[in-house]
Specification:
Number of strands: 3
Shape: elongated
Structural class: mainly alpha
Largest sheet: 3 strands, parallel
Radius of gyration: 13 Å
Helix content: 40-55%
Mean pLDDT: 83
Strand content: 5-15%
Distance between the termini: 27 Å
Low-confidence stretches: 69-75
Number of domains: 1
Strand order of the largest sheet: 1-2-3
Length: 75
């Protein structure tokens, strides 16, 4: 179902953001399926605006799908 939703969104020229990513396996699947953006507790609990700024600086340019609102990624 997720694969189909990503494909359908891309067919409509939409950027797809997966929410609630909690595991490395989920992140790997979404990346392999071409998901454009991800967010979730795999990366961080909810954070404040200043913490978000620090997080974005830390994660910029690491080659993964664009990460939204996260910090302290787990290995």
């Amino acid at each position: 179902m997720v694969r189909t939703m990503i494909q359908m969104g891309h067919n409509l020229n939409l950027s797809i953001c997966a929410e609630a990513v909690q595991t490395r396996e989920a992140l790997d699947f979404l990346e392999a399926e071409g998901c454009d953006k991800v967010q979730g507790f795999f990366f961080s609990e909810a954070i404040t605006a200043p913490e978000f700024e620090t997080f974005v600086r830390t994660w910029s340019g690491q080659g993964a799908p664009q990460v939204v609102a996260t910090r302290n990624a787990k290995s």
